[in-house]
Design brief:
The protein is an all-beta fold. It is 0% helix and 59% strand. It is built from no helices and 18 strands. The protein has strands at 3-8, 13-19, 31-33, 44-48, 51-56, 59-67, 75-84, 92-105, 112-127, 130-137, 140-147, 157-161, 165-168, 174-177, 182-185, 189-194, 197-200, 204-205. The strands form 2 sheets. It has a 15-stranded antiparallel sheet that branches. Strand 9 (112-127) and strand 10 form a beta hairpin. The protein starts with a strand and ends with a strand.
Length: 206
Amino acid sequence: MPNSIKSHLVSLVFGLILISPLAHASLVPIATENGGQWSSEILFTGSSEKGSLRFLKDGLSYALIRPSDTAGLEFNCLVWNEKFRGANPEVQVSGIDKALSTSSFLGPLGNTTGVNEYNELLYRSIYPHIDLRYYSKEHRLKYDFILHPGANPDRIDISLQGVNNVSVSKNGELEISTAWAVFRESRPYSYQLISGKKTEIRVDYV
C-alpha cells in the first residue's frame, strides 16, 4: 500500500516548500518542456533536493543517482513518485513566464533543439476549483495549491510510492524516508485573502 498524505485545508491558498540544492536566482527556469526528446508521458523535467524530477499529468516522479563503485563507472538509481489521487485526468499543465534560454538535446528519440524553459508551471483545475502552481523563490522550489471559491480542500490527496515511510515530526514537518535518505518538507503554510490582506490559517499534515 502506498503512503498517503491528505492535506485538510481551511483557506483559499495553501503552500508547501520543496528545497532545491541549486543556489539559483528566483528566475532561473524550474522546468524544461518535452519537445519530443522524452517519452510522451513526461510533460516537463526539473530538479530539486529530492533529485531530478519529471512532471507528469497525475504527479511527479523523482530519480536519485549515485555511483555504485569507487571508480564512478557504474551507478544505482532510486525512483519514487508522488501521485495526485482523485485528480482531474484531463488537467491542463502549462509553462508560465517563459525563460529567455532554451535547451537542445541529442538522444535515441532524435535531435531536439530550441526547447522552451519556464520559470513557473501551472496545473489548472487539478481538482475542482483548485490549481497547483510550481515556482522558484529564494533558491527554493515551491508549490502552492490555490483554492478558488467553491473548492473543497479535502480533495487534495497525495500518495507516495516507492518510499519506506512517511511521518510528521514534532515541528509539523513532513518526513519522507527512502532507502537512501530522509527528506523533509516544511510545515504547510496557508492564508486567506480578505480585503487584500493575508490572514494566516493553521493547517497540518494528516
